[in-house]
TrEMBL record:
This is Molybdopterin-dependent oxidoreductase. Transmembrane segments: none annotated. Keywords: 4Fe-4S, Iron, Iron-sulfur, Metal-binding, Molybdenum, Nitrate assimilation, Oxidoreductase. The keyword Electron transport does not apply. Its cofactor is [4Fe-4S] cluster; Mo-bis(molybdopterin guanine dinucleotide). Belongs to the prokaryotic molybdopterin-containing oxidoreductase family. NasA/NapA/NarB subfamily. Residues 8-69 form the 4Fe-4S Mo/W bis-MGD-type domain.
Length: 721
């Protein structure tokens, strides 16, 4: 025969799982039918996030990407809820979606439509959706699962420093002498960063780790000091530590005077947070709190790494602020190894913030409520003045609630599974059932949200699409296609743009400039870049050619800059109007749902080492089940004995809102009175939708992030029949 020799290719890309953003080399070749397949993935030795390292999830990317089982290969539509969806071609799918949305906008106004996106979309995807919602339709009802993930971190940085984004970089992991993990199980959730920390500690015996976490996670088990605080008492801990530092004179008074404001008011508040009082609130030994404060305050370089344990809380903004304030008062920032470093969960939580793809922001870290900011974006997008919405839209929890009250009629969900990940999912399922029109843009057919779709749009996924993501240290990396998408699956930006152009033809005023000319990821990125010029995240000098030539780069990267900035606020000049960082009073407030006689246990949630989110991708790799094969509720042996429960039996976990059944696992990693379950297991694996059957929809007033990490529950033997 004259079959061509199979051509092996290597494509540089970025791992699609977590916010570490590891660089990968994707190997592919064409099979006997001429179809290009991914044959292997290895760490990219040249990528500055991982220098060749990968964790278990990244190492198995080839396997998860190759498996086409359960992929959505063709658009599907249905006219009414009762009937089954039928396969259609793209033309009909796009026309129908545009027609249905246009009709709803014409009848009920633009705010009757909402978009719910994902921190796993690429920056270019996010950009088109944001322009479609705010620029074309004129609604700010566009939010994302990043609301469940990073919004308290955004609020914390903005309130303290005047701008979003961490002041730190990954190299700080190697320079830090004291590392404070707060609400972060980095050993599981950010494994490659954790490995960098382990190597740094192995080199330098002076390095000390403190972990504040109610559970003895693998990270906590390796700490020099584990503060097993009661769930939700983080603010009391940080306030108590700062009280001690004030008392001991370990503050940087010159820095506070020259570069900050508001310390006096905070200091007033701190008076009541004596170490004794604070330790009591936290349920820890006072000596441990004092030791933590000493290690932090006297350290040549203290770095905190924090994550969902602080963010996923109705007081998440205060938790972020109280921790940042420890750094500000002691000037533990702006130099190598020091700073408050919020680790992002999803691979592109940062990119979504950069394009302003959320209900509360505009493009390039601009504010919706600021008329000057709106005018700037209107000019850059050639919109008529007054087109952009002037008020924030509905954030995640409110967005699905508004389907109940009929304020929102149609929701377009892309690349996320709210019927698994939202708090109180029973209510979210009802909202989706009630909605007039639900569009689900997905690559996997098995998610808990897909059954609600009136229009199901097949998306291409990692390994098949091009664009960029921004990792936890503000570093923008290219994601590149190695193979063609299967069936009729299309890139997310393409789907959004095709619908947008159809809506534009119908809704835009005559003579309006076309908004969706950009037709490649590179052109979309160029449009996004233009909006950042002069802003704190200015990437005017960073185009695809630079990324190609010089590899991944951190922002800011202005056109005239010598290069990227690894650290921010090095000179003590902050991004507030007066250039001073701002202290805020952070009173401790307990978790929203207190335990009671009916619901006497605290349930906390977290992650497994080898799984990701609802497991739609990681669940395709058998080897990733070896570490934690089965779902479980972990309970302290004493609590189990008191209830006559034994290991392995099925238990029913109930809260005021709902219930689920899980096998019981006994473990003293949780304190008596607290139970733990991983958040990954969904309706694909359980008879229920998972832990969010019982979680509550209370949100933080400033960040609107829900309290996903704590609910009062009762646990009993599961009765059947
Ligand atoms: Fe991927 Fe995160 Fe693992 Fe790196 S640490 S390989 S980005 S999952």
């Amino acid at each position: 025969g004259h079959a061509l020799q199979p051509q092996a290719r290597t494509t540089r890309s970025t791992c699609c799982y977590c916010g570490v953003g590891c660089g990968v080399l994707v190997h592919s070749r064409s099979d006997a039918d001429g179809r290009e397949i991914i044959t292997g993935v290895e760490g990219d030795p040249a990528h500055p996030a991982n220098f060749g390292r990968l964790c278990s999830k990244g190492r198995t990317l080839a396997e998860s990407a190759r498996s086409l089982q359960g992929r959505i290969l063709q658009p599907e539509l249905r006219a009414t809820r009762g009937e089954a969806r039928r396969p259609v071609d793209w033309g009909l799918a796009l026309d129908t979606v545009a027609e249905r949305l246009a009709r709803i906008v014409e009848r009920h106004g633009p705010d009757a439509v909402a978009f719910y996106l994902s921190g796993q979309l690429l920056t270019e995807d996010y950009y088109v959706f944001n322009k479609l919602a705010k620029g074309l339709l004129g609604t700010a009802n566009i939010d994302t699962n990043s609301r469940l993930c990073m919004s308290s971190a955004v609020a914390g940085y903005k309130l303290a420093f005047g701008a979003d984004g961490p002041p730190t970089c990954y190299e700080d992991l190697e320079h830090a002498k004291t590392v404070l993990f707060a609400g972060s199980n980095a050993a599981y959730a950010h494994p490659v960063l954790f490995r960098r920390l382990e190597e740094a500690r192995a080199r330098d015996p002076q390095v000390r780790w403190i972990v504040a976490d109610p559970r003895r996670t693998d990270t906590a088990a390796m700490a020099d000091l584990h503060l097993a605080i009661q769930p939700g008492t983080d603010v009391a801990l940080f306030n108590g530590m700062l009280h001690h530092l004030v008392w001991e004179g370990l503050l940087d008074q010159d820095f506070i005077a020259a570069h900050t404001s508001g310390f006096g008011e905070l200091k007033q508040l701190l008076r009541e947070y004596t170490p004794r009082m604070s330790a009591e609130l936290c349920g820890i030994e006072v000596q441990d709190l004092v030791t933590a404060a000493e290690w932090f305050g006297r350290s040549p370089a203290a770095l905190s790494l924090y994550c969902m344990g602080l963010n996923q809380s109705a007081h998440g903004t205060d938790k972020n602020l109280a921790l940042i304030q420890l750094h500000l008062a002691t000037r533990q920032l702006g130099r190598p190894g020091a700073g408050p470093f919020s680790l992002t969960g999803q691979p592109n939580a940062m990119g979504g913030r950069e394009v302003g793809g959320m209900a509360t922001m505009l493009a390039a870290h601009r504010e919706l409520e600021d008329p000057a900011h709106r005018a700037e974006v209107e000019a850059l997008w050639s919109l008529a003045p007054g087109t952009l919405p002037a008020k924030p839209g509905l954030a995640a929890v409110e967005l699905f609630d508004a389907l109940h009250s009929d304020k929102v009629k149609a929701v377009w969900i892309a690349c996320t599974n709210p019927a698994h990940s939202m708090p109180d999912i029973g209510r979210v399922r009802e909202a989706l059932q009630r909605a007039e029109y639900v569009i689900v843009q997905e690559c996997y057919a098995g998610t808990d949200t897909v059954p609600y779709a009136d229009a199901l749009l097949p998306a291409s996924t990692w390994g098949e699409k091009d664009g960029t993501v921004t990792n936890s240290e503000r570093r923008i990396s290219r994601v590149r296609a190695a193979v063609a998408a299967p069936g009729q699956a299309k890139p997310d930006w393409w789907i959004a743009r095709e619908v947008a152009r159809r809506l534009e033809a119908r809704l835009a005023s005559p003579g309006a400039a076309p908004l969706f000319e950009a037709d490649t990821p590179e052109r979309l990125f160029d449009e996004h870049r233009a909006l950042t010029v002069g802003r704190d995240l200015d990437i005017g000098g960073l185009d695809y050619a630079v990324l190609e030539r010089e590899g991944p780069q951190q922002w800011p990267f202005p056109a005239d800059a010598a290069g990227a900035q690894a650290r921010r606020y090095v000179d003590g000049a902050f991004a507030t109007a007066d250039g001073r960082a701002r202290f805020h009073p952070t009173p401790y407030r307990p978790v929203v749902e207190q335990t009671s006689a009916r619901f006497p246990l605290r349930m906390i949630t977290g992650r497994l080492r080898d799984q990701w989110h609802g497991m739609s991708r990681s669940g395709r790799v058998p080897a990733l089940f070896a570490h934690s094969p089965d779902p479980a509720l972990r309970m302290h042996p004493e609590d189990a004995a008191r209830r006559a429960l034994v290991a392995g039996e099925l238990v029913r976990i109930a809260s005021k809102r709902g219930e689920l059944v899980l096998p019981l696992e006994l473990s003293d990693e949780v304190a008596s009175g607290t139970v733990f379950a991983a958040m990954h297991w969904s309706g694909q694996y359980l008879s229920s939708g998972g832990v969010n059957e019982v979680s509550l929809p209370a949100v933080d007033a400033r960040s609107r992030q829900p309290e996903l990490k704590h609910a009062a529950v009762r646990v009993e033997k599961a009765a059947f029949g």
